[in-house]
Structures are given as structure tokens and as C-alpha cells.
Amino acid sequence: MPVKTQVGIIGAGPAGLMLSHLLYLQGIESVILESRSREEIEGTIRAGVLEQGTVDLLNEMGVGERMMREGHFHKGFEFRFNRQGHRIDVHELTGGKYITVYAQHEVIKDLVAARLQAGGTILFNVGDVSLHDVDTSTPKIRYRPDKDGELQEIVCDYIGGCDGFHGPSRPMIPQANRTEYQKVYPHGWLGILVKAPSSVSELVYANHERGFALLSTRSPEVQRFYLQVNPKDDIKEWSDDRIWSELHARLETRDGFQLLEGPIFQKSIVSMRSFVCDPMQYGRLFLAGDSAHIVPPTGAKGLNLAAADVKVLAEGLKSFYATGDSEMLNRYTEICLRRVWLAERFSYRMTNMLHRNPEHTPFEHQIQLAELDYITSSRAASMSIAENYVGLPMGFGS
Ligand code: APR
Ligand code: PHB
What we know:
By secondary structure, the chain is of the alpha/beta class. The chain is built from twelve helices and 21 strands. It is globular.
């Protein structure tokens, strides 16, 4: 017997979990299908910067309690170049907004707990997920429970394609109906977790002739650092000594900055791309989050874009179920993509401004430094960076 639900959601990442919980709060039923285990999704290390709008949304959803207790609320961040730090006072420049540093997997833990406590259904470890009849009023999802069980079917009114960049949802939009925009960067990020006290009170984004470096944090005892590396590098080529020596070199300042070291207990390399799929909807399938768009991590926008998408989608579904009116659902792509492209622009700009590009001429390198000089010395330019960094309003574009 097929199971029925109102919204079938593929993927228990930030997009799928937030969508499911927002729908629950509006009295709309959903089922989440996730190919990984609960332990895996709760343990995967990702970025950790939340925009003010995302923090507000998590609080409105009633899942922000631990984030408000354990998160770090920063009023600014630093651009470091020519061996000098330049602070962007985000709080003052945006009329009182904060940057919240709280790891994505902690957001996931809070959302999973809230879904389960509210009696929500998350099917972990499912296999062979496939979508059917998405252009009819009864789309279906088939899957195998526990990877190898018998095929089961869920019949729904709508499908939330929240299955990340490699999931099965986006390919369901026929190729002739979609345009994909992509830029792959010649940079990778080597990310490490370190058991050490913080060396700085706010995030530091450093442009250095040896490459970009970023200082972030996780807790008073655990720090998160990144180094620009060749995306083809094998992590084995990066011994702890080599990582420390690069971090010290790239973060050095004229006034003797001291980076505190400690044991490195996690390291990995990710490649960087920008990607947008237009449209984000086909029939009754709606893509949200990384399944529809990817940003390089420099602007710290990934999770925040997922939050903005599902807010629009949940509102569209609410108005459909309340009044039968699908006007907002019909505008889903248009509303989301405007904000998405603005975040793509910002992330692209931050990436190009901060990384050493092997293809750049010395002229282009000087332009990069002039750009950093301008945005840190002109109030108008700092304000624009601060407004984008803290996040454009959730309703932007609607
Ligand atoms: N069947 C079921 N689940 C799937 C399938 C599949 N075939 N393919 C992928 N998934 C699951 C993944 O295991 C993952 O848990 O979909 C989820 C997608 O989650 P994310 O990749 O975290 O994407 P999203 O929820 O859109 O969140 C975007 O998370 O990846 C970061 O940097 C990204 O911050 C951004 C945010
Ligand atoms: C992080 O803390 O993981 C982080 C911070 C800022 C970024 C990206 C990642 O721009």
C-alpha cells in the first residue's frame, strides 16, 4: 500500500529539515527521505556562519534555543592584506545586526531533534530514491527502506527536492526546460579543526601572496581554519607542520600577530564552484538549497540560501493549502532566484577578491589589492560589504 503525505521531501540537510518543520508549524504533513544515517548527517563538518535572517527564522521556528546559548555573536570581521588588519564593523554599518557563528551540523542536530519530538517522520538510510509523475497532481517517490528492502512508494501533493548538488531531484527537470549556469574555480579550501584557544575575537579573511587563509571558530576550545590550496591536492600532501607554516606565513602582520597552535583533529579539502539551475521548479517538484544552487564558501552563504528558499516554499504551500491559491508557488523560481543571484554575485566577488588566482597577471593582483583598500576605507563600500555579509532581508525580491 502506498503511503500518502502532503509534501514528500528528499534530503535531511538544512533545506529538507527546515522545510519539514516550517510545514509542520503550519499544519502541513511531510515525510523526509534521507540516504545517510542520522549519525552521518549530524557529524558531517560544514561551514558555520548564519545570517541574521537565518537566526531569526530558526528562533521563530522554536529551534534556536541552543544556538542562542552556544553560538558566537560577532559584531564585525577583518580583512587582512598587505600584512595589516582592517575591520568591517558589520553591527554599526547594518543598524545593529550580528554575524552568528554556529556550526551547520549543530543546526542539523537541533532540527532533527525538533522534528522527532514533534512526531515528524524522517526515514534515514533509504536507498534507490526515485521521483515519478512530477508533472501531475499526484507526484510519487519510490525508495528502499534500509537500502535493500522492498521498493516502497509515497504519493504526495508536492515534492521538495532538498537532496543537495548530487541528488536525484534536479535531473527530473527535463534538460530542454532548464538552464544551468556554472563556474568552477581553480581554488580548493583545506579546512581544519584545531583544539586550541582562539587567537582572534572575530573572523579574519586574509589575502596573501601565498594564497587565501581564513580564521573562524567553533567554541572557546575549538577553532576552524582554512587555507587556499590546489583543489587537486591530496590531503596526505598536507602534514600538520606544513599547514601551520602556511597559516603563520599567510596571517602574519606588521605588528606581530600570534596564531595559537594546537592538535589538528580533522582535515579535508573541498573544491569550489558557483552553480545555478533555472528554473527551480518543474510541475509539482520544487528544488531548494544546494540541489538548485551552489556558492563558494567565501561569502558563507550556503545554508542561508537554503533557509531563504524553504521560507518562500513553505509560505507558498501554506497559501495553497489554505485557499487553493498557487500564485506564490508559481512565483517560486522568480522570488528565489533574485536573491540567489545576489548571493552568487557576492560570493563570486569575495572569492575573486581574496584568493590568489594562478592565472592573474601582476596588474590584476594590484587591482585586487586596490579593491580591498577601497572596501575597507570607503564607508559606502564597507556598508555594501556589511549588508551583503550579514544577509539581504529574507523577503528581498518578493
Ligand atoms: N536520496 C535521499 N537523500 C539524498 C539523496 C538521495 N538520492 N541524495 C542526497 N541526499 C541527501 C544527502 O545525504 C544530504 O543529507 O540530501 C541531503 C542534502 O543536504 P545538503 O547537501 O546539506 O544540502 P542542503 O540541505 O541544500 O543544504 C545546503 O548545506 O551542503 C551544505 O554548503 C551547503 O550550506 C549549504 C547547505
Ligand atoms: C566556517 O566557520 O566554517 C566558515 C566561516 C566563514 C566562511 C566560511 C566558513 O566564509
